[in-house]
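Final report, Chapter 2: Outcomes

The project's central promise was a pipeline that accepts a single protein chain and returns its three-dimensional structure in a standardized token representation, suitable for archiving and comparison. That pipeline is now operational. To close this chapter, we reproduce one record exactly as it appears in the project archive, with the input sequence first and the structure output second.
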Amino acid sequence: MIRPDFPHIPWHDRDHPSSRRAPRILGINPWITDFAAFNVWSRPVGLLACLDMLRGAGASVALMDCLDPTWNDVKWPKPGKYGTGHYPKETLATPAPLAFMDRRFSCYGLPREMVREALTALEPKPDAVMVSTIMTYWYPGALDILDIVAELWPDVPRFLGGTYATLCGEHARTHANAHLTQGPLEWPDNWTAFWKTIGFDTPPLPENAGLSLATDLYEQPAYSVILGSRGCPFSCEYCASHALYPAFNQGMSSDILNGIQSEYDRGVRNFAFYDDALLIKPDRWLWPVLDAIVDRSLDLRLHTPNAMHVRHLTQTVCHRLKDAGLHTVRLGLETTDFDNRNDVKLTREQWEAGANNLLEAGFDLDDIGVYILFGLPGQDLDNVEQAVDHVRAFGFRPHLAHYTPIPGSPMFDAACAASPYPLADEPLYQNNSIWPCVPGGFSWDEAKRWKCLLQGKR
């Protein structure tokens, strides 16, 4: 049962002159369906950007986040560090394509019946429902929520957007009972099509569309997110960033700072950067924002779960980050086989200089983690072991970044050739938990061995 003081999902408006009734748009972030899941400052940034721009265009908006830990009637696991933590989960039957896996498959997030009851209590009903998809292989949760919405409001248009809808369009068109929004909503064709479908005149696109987030829709947030840019100027072979968002756009420092200050004023102290290229052109927005945090004496903690590019970590950069309150440092090393790298993002000298600059700036070793790619098509896993040892020699914590074959990435064809699974036909096989491109696939014995290596045990 929903707690008595939470009978409905609230609608949020923004002052906007109009002679017509404002459309009501409900955004839903579905459950995670997977073998494992952990909350690392998770927020559906794409959906929050959509809701913000729709509200800016005159709509009333509401959010149902099935991963929101502020629902008091749910017993959530003990919170982790800085607002991270585990999700409540319910064991599910393993999907037929993944039946070979010797791992428990679960639904992570709020109980299904609680979500259904909250949606049932929503008054008045929405004029449209937008459902997000963050990972391609999490689509079962999105399809489930779409079925609930179709049952509750059969005449209300449903829109499915995000990674699965954009990168697995053919599969989504076959299985999802919804209109597909492929690519950002602010693209002119998507923006016009959305308003036409719901039967309202198309309003002008608000300023800063796509870079402003409706983070205020969370009532009692333990953390918030910062989005200073969309897209990435790099073209890594394993990444589909360009397929999702081809451009690289940066926001205005004043808008970003206003968002941080607003969240801070209502008690938020942990902020996670969601930028793919945080340290690129920092004069545009990052330095003014960090300087203002220092000038205003904001007692907050900053985190970089998406990893920073080590080559940009000069002494000055490290000290500015430290002074502004950066706590959780994640670095993208990927591999220490510098002589055979297929990109020019990082040299051995740049890696060692950046690592030493972090230490000199006074960062806590416990808060520095380094991502090392694991499970690439044809990857020599001996090189991964060497990278783990190399990172531990600096005193940092190595983390294996398990490779996810992503449609639209330059490496996807190679992944399809290397994997025994039909990656292009069934997104469930793109799940990095099954080690889709590692010969022999996932193994508990190998997983335990790698865990020991990461801890320095041999």
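Archive annotation: The longest strand covers residues 326-334.
This record, like all others produced under the grant, will remain available to the consortium after the project formally closes.
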